[in-house]
């Protein structure tokens, strides 16, 4: 199938800027080294997808990512890596096979695997499940304990692997440099650490998931040591996201992977195997049928959210609602093209409170509350289930550090019986605290949180125990 080798440079959105691979500041060898194929552990998923493509069936791809995938820093969203890949597919594969690719971007800025693990069902329909899933959360899932920090990613991965559509998963691994100046010393993550260092590579190998590592392009290891090699167009001028050249490099890696997969389309039949035993998480907390109420929509203005859990505001003081349908909920409001949106109940006053009521179905559950938009300050918030204030979970605004606009799930109880319950949240002290209550989730009993994952009490994102000790706030 020589036609598969057609390059994207003459027709994709970046055709006037990146006309060949040299313009991308990479070589074919660099691209090849950055694609870590692990399909021997689960080869049937690639075979199943290939058979669908060659039969001319429509293919649906979803992207589960953070702000990089949501379009952070990029004005023209046709230049995002998943859109560039889609342009290649529908220009090259669709005319030959009749297999058209549609892409749904479920990415949410500042959001990690913990939220998606419990709320993914709110954004996809059982009648329209994906065939390809790109998971781009390697910079959103930060922490300091190898294996334990990767537990939410493993839970999310297993949820996606268990979808009835039997999708092919790719991990897309980016890097959060936070480069604030021209000098190398201004890079807060100079060794390019991300979730790969905390267990994601092992997850990819264990579950047979190909890893597309842009980190290997930006920060190639030399004698075992990584150092950022930043070329123009790779890191966005907002200092927070990858730029257009970075997106094009990632897109080309994904294109090369699928060229390889479809070229070796020899086996027509395969036997589906059971998902492997968990690698890092305990089997007792595997998330299979979670419930989620979340005032969140990754496709604001394009689709509605199907809440899997009903929650009612029982009483409140000094909390006001940001309706999810309101344009104020949309990231980048008012001018940005981004469609990820976050509504809920917001307060920035001391002494405010809000109480939610809900019905817990049969069996035991863990109950968590999803919080967003806490800024670093001296304010404090407490949250607890029912009348158990003595066991309240407390967070200070100062403990949120400089990592603002993050979505985090905090579990307030891990052994909740069926029946009517309430969650109450109160802000305390004389200091202002900025907070958005974004959702409530139910998962299997026994979840108290994930040790070492997205810790509060640090000034910056951390990627190792050494980082954690360095950036941990002193009381």
From TrEMBL:
<dbReference type="InterPro" id="IPR036514">
    <property type="entry name" value="SGNH_hydro_sf"/>
</dbReference>
<protein>
    <recommendedName>
        <fullName>SGNH hydrolase-type esterase domain-containing protein</fullName>
    </recommendedName>
</protein>
């Amino acid at each position: 199938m020589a036609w598969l080798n057609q390059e994207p440079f003459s027709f994709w959105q970046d055709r006037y800027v990146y006309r060949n691979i040299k313009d991308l500041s990479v070589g074919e060898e660099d691209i090849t080294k950055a694609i870590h194929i692990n399909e021997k552990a689960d080869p049937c998923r690639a075979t199943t997808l290939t058979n669908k493509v060659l039969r001319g069936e429509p293919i649906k791809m979803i992207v589960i990512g953070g702000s990089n995938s949501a379009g952070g820093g990029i004005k023209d969203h046709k230049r995002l890596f998943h859109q560039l890949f889609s342009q290649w597919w529908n220009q090259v594969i669709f005319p030959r096979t009749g297999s058209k690719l549609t892409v749904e971007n479920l990415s949410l800025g500042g959001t990690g695997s913990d939220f998606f693990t419990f709320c993914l069902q709110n954004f996809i329909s059982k009648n329209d499940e994906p065939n390809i899933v790109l998971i781009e959360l390697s910079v959103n899932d930060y922490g300091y304990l190898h294996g334990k920090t990767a537990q939410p990613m493993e839970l999310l991965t297993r949820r996606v692997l268990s979808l009835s559509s039997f999708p092919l998963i790719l991990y897309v691994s980016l890097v959060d440099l936070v480069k604030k100046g021209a000098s190398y010393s201004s890079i807060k993550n100079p060794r390019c650490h991300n979730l790969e260092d905390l267990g994601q590579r092992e997850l990819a190998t264990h579950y047979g998931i190909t890893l597309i590592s842009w980190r290997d392009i930006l920060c190639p290891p030399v004698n075992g040591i990584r150092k950022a090699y930043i070329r123009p167009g790779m890191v966005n001028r907002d200092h927070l996201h990858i730029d257009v050249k970075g997106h094009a490099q990632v897109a080309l890696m994904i294109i090369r992977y699928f060229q390889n997969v479809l070229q070796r389309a020899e086996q027509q039949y395969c036997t589906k195997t059971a998902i492997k035993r968990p690698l890092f998480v305990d089997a007792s907390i595997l998330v299979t049928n979670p419930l989620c109420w979340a005032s969140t929509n990754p496709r604001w203005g394009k689709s509605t959210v199907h809440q899997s859990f009903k929650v009612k505001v029982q009483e409140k003081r000094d909390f006001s609602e940001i309706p999810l349908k309101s344009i104020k909920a949309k990231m980048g409001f008012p001018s940005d093209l981004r469609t990820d949106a976050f509504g809920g109940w917001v307060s920035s006053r001391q002494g405010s409170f809000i109480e939610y009521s809900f019905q817990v179905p049969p069996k035991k559950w863990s109950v968590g509350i999803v919080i967003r938009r806490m800024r670093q300050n001296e304010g404090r918030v407490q949250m607890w289930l029912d009348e158990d204030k003595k066991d309240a979970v407390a967070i200070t605004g100062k403990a949120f550090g400089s990592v603002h606009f993050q979505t985090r799930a905090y579990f307030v109880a891990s052994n909740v019986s069926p029946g009517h319950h309430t969650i109450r949240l109160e802000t305390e002290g004389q200091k202002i605290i900025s907070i958005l209550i974004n959702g409530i989730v139910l998962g299997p009993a026994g979840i108290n949180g994930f040790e070492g994952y997205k810790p509060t009490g640090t000034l910056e994102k951390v990627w190792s125990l050494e980082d954690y000790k360095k950036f941990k706030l002193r009381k």
